[in-house]
Write a structure and sequence with these properties.
The protein has 399 residues and is an alpha+beta fold. The chain is built from eleven helices and eight strands. Strands 1, 2, 3, 4, 5, 6, 7 and 8 form an eight-stranded mixed β-sheet that branches. Strand 4 and strand 5 form a beta hairpin. The protein starts with 6 loop residues before the first helix and ends in a 14-residue tail after the last helix. The structure holds flavin-adenine dinucleotide (FAD). The site of flavin-adenine dinucleotide has 23 residues, from helix 4, strand 1 and strand 3.
């Protein structure tokens, strides 16, 4: 297994690192104001990032999952909310381009839309979705057939960067179909009648993703952008899109973890206490704690790279899905350790508003929550490790 990046992946990682230095300057303001970092997205567009995971044959950079991991870990160190919001574009473009069921002409149309500078978000969640109960992700937003396309009715939640996006990639249920797992994937222009956004995203962390409520009251999706239909939404989504979906945001959280440890090690490596010449980092309690935390995020980082390598070499499969489950769990656990451990190591001085660590700790609180939540990851990994089928696991009784 070789995680060495190609020249092109290294180039993009370098650009991401430079952009992150600039994004970091405004991260506190976007967090405080709960504002979308639109100027950051524009800089990423100008750098060609909208086509980062679009395959070369469709006109993109074709840098694969490893390319996004390498870029995301840099961007997230500057501003994790920018990385996570932009990840929904990567989720959409990556997911669409690798879907075997989507015909080539529709893939090309979606890819061209992104390459022309249109930003996408991805909406799966609805108000009642819980990653402990996968079937709650079956879409209930309904699509009603009309001449030339479908009109949508219903509500999505947690729609990161919907307001900053030109198109949304989402799943809907064909009206009148008796199978609750029946779903259609569509790409819909966000700026049209029949769409209302309600600002509910006043959260502890990741405040600048503006993952708001979106109501559809007759918005139109044209037949050209109805991408495919499946009879079994959850199974299909988990296998075919887990890499670009939760693999993508796992990479952002991994970068956030690197940002936390890098900030803390600089701080503790330089700060001296009254009467002492040496920095606080020489205190054995601090060096011991930092040693453990630095190792934990490093281990999680390699698991993310390993999962991305698996995706790029073997494509989507149950084995790839399991790799991302493990990486997601490891990153979520590492961020929880970093959040609590670094708060103690760096102390109250680092917890004032406006300090990067204070914001990063709040952002990190959402890492084990993003689906599959840490609990959902652990139980699925356990079942797969025992050779058991997660689809057969007992669950709480449905209504
Ligand atoms: C920063 C961030 C950005 C996100 N962006 C997107 C996005 O762009 N697109 C997208 O599709 N999704 C997005 N999500 C949403 C995410 O994908 C999940 O759907 C969402 O986190 C699930 O809700 P939960 O965490 O409350 O549920 P769970 O994973 O179940 O969380 C655990 C607990 O929440 C409670 N809970 C869950 N559901 C219910 C319910 N119906 N009633 C009562 N209690 C409940 C229960 O106590 C449950 O045990 C984002 C999430 C985060 C944190």
């Amino acid at each position: 297994m070789e995680f060495g990046l190609s020249q092109e992946q290294e180039r993009v990682k370098g650009i991401a690192k430079e952009l992150a230095l600039d994004f970091a300057k405004r991260a506190a303001q976007h967090d405080a104001e709960r504002s979308l970092p639109l100027e950051n997205f524009a800089q990423m567009r100008d750098a060609g990032f909208y086509g980062l995971v679009v395959p070369k044959e469709l006109g993109g950079l074709g840098l694969g999952m490893l390319g996004w991991v390498a870029a995301a870990e840099e961007i997230a160190q500057g501003d994790a909310a920018t990385a996570l919001a932009f990840n929904m574009h990567i989720n959409g473009t990556g997911g669409i381009c690798q879907r075997p069921e989507i015909p080539d002409d529709k893939k090309q149309r979606a890819a061209t839309t992104a390459l022309e500078g249109h930003l996408m978000c991805t909406m799966v969640s609805e108000p009642t979705s819980s990653s402990l109960l996968p079937s709650t992700y079956n879409p209930t937003v309904e699509a009603e057939k009309v001449p030339g396309g479908y009109r949508l009715y219903g509500r999505k939640w947690f729609a990161s960067n919907f307001e900053g996006s030109d198109y949304a990639y989402l799943y809907v249920h064909p009206k009148g179909n008796a199978n609750p797992a029946q779903a259609m994937a569509v790409l819909i222009p966000t700026r049209q009648d029949g769409i209302t956004v309600t600002d509910i995203w006043d959260t502890l962390g990741m405040r600048a993703t503006r993952s708001n409520q979106v109501d559809f009251t007759g918005a139109l999706v044209s037949d050209d952008f109805v991408l495919y239909e499946t009879e079994s939404f959850v199974g299909s989504f988990l296998i075919e899109e887990s890499s670009f979906s939760f693999g993508g945001y796992t990479s952002c959280y991994m970068g956030l973890g690197l940002g936390m440890i890098n900030w803390a090690t600089k701080y503790l490596g330089e700060r001296t206490a009254k009467g002492y010449a040496q920095p606080m980092g020489y205190h054995p309690d601090i060096s011991h704690r930092i040693g453990i935390l630095a190792t934990e995020i490093d281990a999680a980082r390699y698991m993310v790279y390993k999962a991305a390598w698996h995706q790029d070499h073997y494509g989507p499969s149950l084995a790839t899905f399991e790799q991302f489950l493990r990486a997601k769990l490891a990153v979520g656990n590492a961020l929880q350790s970093l959040a609590s451990g670094l708060a103690v190591a760096c102390g109250l001085h680092s917890l004032f508003k406006g300090q990067p660590l204070e914001r990063m700790i709040r952002d990190a609180a959402t890492a084990p929550i993003m689906p599959p939540s840490a609990d959902a990851c652990a139980s699925m990994i356990g079942l797969l490790a025992m050779g058991l089928d997660p689809g057969q696991a007992p669950s709480i009784r449905m209504a």
